[in-house]
Amino acid sequence: MAGLAAALNAPSSIDAIAWALAARGPDGAVCRLTGPNGVCLDLAVRAAMPAITKVVAAPADPPAHADPDSADSAASDDSPTSADAADSVAPADSGAGDRGEAAPGEDAADEEAEHPVAAIIVDGVASVTALDRGYLERGPAGLVDGGEHPYAVVLADAERGELVLARNGTGPTLYYARLDDGWVVASEPRALIHAGVAPEPDVGVIRRFVKSGTCDDSDRTFFAKIRRLLPGEAIVLSTAVSGPVRHPVRHTPPAPPSVDEAIWRAGAGERVGVLLTPGVGGAAVLGAALHQPGRTGPLSVFTATMPALAGPAAQVPDVLRSLPPSAVRHTPVTARLDLSTLDAFLADLGEPVPDLSVYLLWTVARELSGGIGTLVDATPGTLAARERIADRMLAHYGVAVPAPLRGDDADEQTLAAILRRVLPPQVARLAHDDAAALPTSAQVVLALRDEVAAALVPPRPWSDASASVTALRRLQAGEDVDADALLRAFLVERWLAGLGPQVKVPDPALVRPTTELPEVPVREPGDVVVDGGVWRRTLVRTAPIAAGDPLLANAAFYVTNLLTTRGDLPLGPWFVVISGKAVAVSQDRVEPVDWVRPGRLAAILARLARRHRPHLAEPATMRVAIDHCGLWPIVGTVLFGRPLPSEAANYPPRPGAVAPANAAVVRPPSEPDEVAASLVAALRLALTREHWRTLAGVAIASADDAGCRVLGFAPGPAAEATPHPRTLLSMALADNPAGQGTQRTPIVIVAQQTVATVERALHATEAPVGAVAAQR
Fold first, then answer.
1. How far apart are CA 48 and CA 37, in angstroms?
2. Sign (positive/negative) of CA torsion 563, 564, 567, 571?
3. What is the mean predicted confidence (pLDDT) over 436-453?
């Protein structure tokens, strides 16, 4: 696998990223483009034969996208653009290719005459011609063709000053992060750390990993500042928006093969070896590989044992004793159980893994001398981090590692049936009665008990140090404890130690607890009539919002995704309305109740404010208002009816709300007009042309039982079609259709309907809330 790297508005980082990806390829190439207002767009590739395709505009035609990888297309008379081959791109480790300079062998005048408008790098099997055509016709979603061949692609659009990342199927993962005012992209997260991204651990991801072993199932990584590209996803990175703008792509994961099919498929091909594990499953995988058609010589079989663990974990499977040398060529590998090797393993994979069976696979992969192209891993277990493991093994050691027994709940009968078909009965009996066994988490923890105890003592926000030490003592006493969780917590500590002293672990006392919320069905609110027009309100469900989340970019994705799946929306001018409380939470304007000390004065003022200022009727909410607005403005509001300062319009804690609003005072959002304008910019990048043309505006609003208040507004391209948008939205959302519970619907799309719908609504027997408000 190749190593892809990209940088937007971070010109000094591309060389550092390419250097950190040296393990993925001996040679490199760099391409540097300049976008609008001097924005820097840099691409780099590390591979055995690195290639970067540049899309250039024909001299007589305006800049446009082209057919980059086809020689016939580039030479055709009607082609508006042409593509440069990779030999015109500067090598990654050369000093040439700086912006404004020609790469070695290029003429500066020719480079200037080419007018490059884009550049494309691909990891996997894909036609760059088809990718560029898809991007030209369908935008970022056109980079995902939905075919059977997985790939990852990065496109640098110099005309728009954007980076576009896409991943077809289960293609290679790409990681991206903010760096100052720009973006950086790489095939591995450690390359982004090397470029200057802060290696801050993600508390939520680590807490979940330690508890259940789950990881790599969302865009979040173990690094709080780094995200990963999901299968079938396309995103746009731009300097105009603080977060990534996701473009919905219809991605249907293929159905997983049966256990029988997976085992037979894994052992097919040439240069195949097997990592044999004890038991029926390992013997079935070995037998299937031996019975592949065209097998001419002995099959390479590897075993990995841990001599430091006495007993079955130090023995090789009994099946090997009954197989002749003409059938298998056995290579035993010893896995050392010491901290230096374990740290090297975690550094190689980049992030922690849920079990140490991967450690055995990594130990064997490092010992291969190049004669093996596919190493079939017969280890059972979870699919967590499987894509990452396969990527690192192939990129760093040149070996594919299919694991047919991982993730499948194959019972003993199914494996025994396969075993009876592929191996003689006497060999099958040895597999059933195998004395060898894989090492368990309890064995590893006890063998490293001193190191584990030292690692678990420091207080961490993702685990209870005292409970972990108590569990370790109980394990030493022979009691039944969750040794897997202890091992995962220990691996996290070793991973943090390998990142260096610059890693700062958050103080557990300052980390807000998280709670799992039940899934509440989203109800469809009815249409409302405002000033003779029928307006449909559509709720948009999102993931829980936390401080620091790129809410605007995520909101653009959720809105675009809904419009893609719902063909009936919108029919006329439409608005996007986002909750002011959600914006404030993303801005970290949250004061947990446990941290607030109201005092006697705040309690007295809160009692006095119950009738006219009910949102300040709680002492904690009053205390926060006093702290941020001053005592005398609040006294004037409560006692003398003066206007409430904007900074005092706090959201009180509400039981049953989505965390953290259920146990915290949320201050009003900062600069709501600017936030609305930023969301308009994000929607411009995400929406289709038709939807963008009819967008009337974006509003930041606060709704409750007393009605709806528009806190901020920014117009869209169709703003003139709807006069007085603030009043219109206040009436349309007067009944608070999004609710204030755990619905997780902080976004509402308000779209005007057709004339036929208006007539039906006007003749309805019951007038909606908006119609009553309009009549008043």
1. 35
2. positive
3. 92
Q: How far apart are CA 241 and CA 550, in angstroms?
A: 9
Q: What global pTM score does this model have?
A: 0.78
**Position 505 confidence tier, pLDDT thresholds 50, 70, 90:** confident
Closest CA to 42 of 156, 179, 173: 156
**The pair of three-digit structure tokens given for residue 484, joined into one six-digit string:** 């897997």
Peptide bond just before 570 cis, omega within 30 deg: yes
C-alpha count within 13 angstroms, C-beta hemisphere, residue 316: 15
- Of 212, 186, 220, 173, the closest CA to residue 389 belongs to 173
pLDDT tens, residue by residue, 287-308: 999 988 877 889 999 999 998 8
Using CA of residue 497, residue 500, residue 503, residue 509, what is the dihedral sign? Answer: positive
Q: Are 430 and 322 in contact (CB under 8 A)?
A: yes
328 touches 298 (CB < 8 A)? yes
Q: What is the pLDDT of residue 664?
A: 83
pLDDT for position 409? 65
Q: Which of 152, 161, 154, 183 is nearest to 14 (CA)?
A: 183
Q: Could you tell me which of 342, 340, 337, 290 has the C-alpha nearest to residue 314? A: 337
In whole angstroms, give the CA distance from residue 752 to residue 538.
Answer: 11
Q: What residues contact residue 661 under an 8 Å CB cut-off, 6+ apart?
A: 581, 585, 590, 651, 653, 654
| Backbone phi, psi, residue 273, to 5° | -125, 165
Are the CB atoms for 698 and 683 separated by under 8 Å? yes
Neighbours of 230 (CB within 10 A): 17
Region 519-533: what's the mean pLDDT? Answer: 76
754-759's contacts with Cβ under 8 Å and 24+ in sequence apart are 754/571, 754/572, 757/527, 757/534, 757/536, 757/571, 758/529, 758/532, 758/533, 758/534
What is the C-alpha to C-alpha distance for residues 494 and 356, in angstroms, rounded to an integer?
13
- Show the tokens assigned to 354: 């849920």
What does 662-718 look like in DSSP terms, one character per residue?
Answer: TSEEEPPPSSHHHHHHHHHHHHHHHS-HHHHHTEEEEEEEEEETTEEEEEEEEE-TT
Contact 629, 622 (CB under 8 A): no
DSSP 200: -
CB within 8 A of 424, min separation 6: which ones? 322
Instruction: Tell me how long the chain is.
Output: 776
* Between 581 and 613, residue with greater pLDDT: 581
Q: In degrees, to the nearest 5, what angle opens at C-alpha 151 toward C-alphas 360 and 206?
A: 50
Q: Is 61 exposed, middle or buried (0-12, 13-18, 19+ CB in 10 A)?
A: exposed
Quote the radius of gyration of the chain (alpha carbons, Å).
Answer: 30
Percent of the chain with pLDDT over 90: 42
Q: Which residues pair with 700 in a beta bridge?
A: 578, 712
CB 31 within 8 A of CB 54: yes
Integer angstrom CA distances of residue 774 from 67, 239, 755: 55, 41, 18
List the Cα angle 655/656/657 in 5-degree steps.
Answer: 95
Tokens of 337: 């159980």
Work out the angle between the directed axes of helices 357-367 and 339-349 (0-180°, nearest 10): 90
Question: Residues 6 or more apart from 266 whose CB is under 8 A from it?
Answer: 285, 288, 289, 374, 376, 402, 403, 404
How far apart, in whole angstroms, are the C-alpha atoms of residue 661 and residue 654?
A: 6
Q: H or E segment at 54?
A: strand 53-57
Name 299's bridge partners.
Answer: 328
Say if CB 156 and CB 43 are below 8 A apart. yes
- 283: tokens are 């013997």
Please give the Cα distance from 773 to 236 (Å, whole number): 41
Q: Which residue has the higher pLDDT, 522 or 542?
A: 542
CA separation for the pair 686, 680 (Å, rounded): 10
